[in-house]
């Protein structure tokens, strides 16, 4: 219907793919936080099944769409990361490796994607390849953007070199001992906190990834 200053589309929110996509992304995030891996997998698969590409891609150069398109793209990337995390938690390592390879191809500078690829490779007994991924990513950042890998990625590299036991449990919470603070061991290796593992990890790493992503985009322009 026409409504100043333009037109107004009167639809039930449940009829709009974007609304359903956002709901699926948020459901997946909540399930990851609660370690409900099957729910997280189902929600992420449902949301990703609605994805048809960047928001209003043909209008992407318009100022009024840029911020919203960037927000939706970030939701999509996070949902794919949650999907990989759920696959790893359920022992579906081949599927996780395949999904994270597509994730890396779509955004090779995204640090969380590299982190998940290293973890997936290590969990399948391919530790040397995981370290090769770190080396290649570090070289790419240095050569193309003049940046270094972030703290989380460097700590994961160290954990893989040491074959840290907590790697085999991720993303499941690890119980704290009476002599060890709940977050000390895992944080020292760049792994999520043993308590509320996914909530802390994905939110905190995601924020830091977004900051480094903006750095990368600025360096390329």
> What is the helix content?
55-70%
| Major sheet attributes | 2 strands, antiparallel
β content, as a range? Answer: under 5%
CATH class: Mainly Alpha
Describe this structure as you would to a colleague:
The chain is mostly helical and 221 residues long. It has one domain (2-220): Tetratricopeptide repeat domain (Serine Threonine Protein Phosphatase 5, Tetratricopeptide repeat, Alpha Horseshoe). 65% of the residues lie in helices and 2% in strands. The chain contains 9 helices and 2 strands; from the N terminus they run E-E-H-H-H-H-H-H-H-H-H. A two-stranded antiparallel ribbon has the order 1-2. The chain is globular. It starts with a strand and ends with a helix. Residues 176-189 and 192-207 have low confidence and may be disordered.
Quick overview:
The protein is 65% helix and 2% strand. By secondary structure, the chain is mainly alpha-helical. Strand 1 (2-3) and strand 2 form a beta hairpin.
Provide the descriptors you would attach to this structure in a database record.
mainly alpha; two-stranded antiparallel ribbon; Serine Threonine Protein Phosphatase 5, Tetratricopeptide repeat; globular; 65% helix; 221 residues
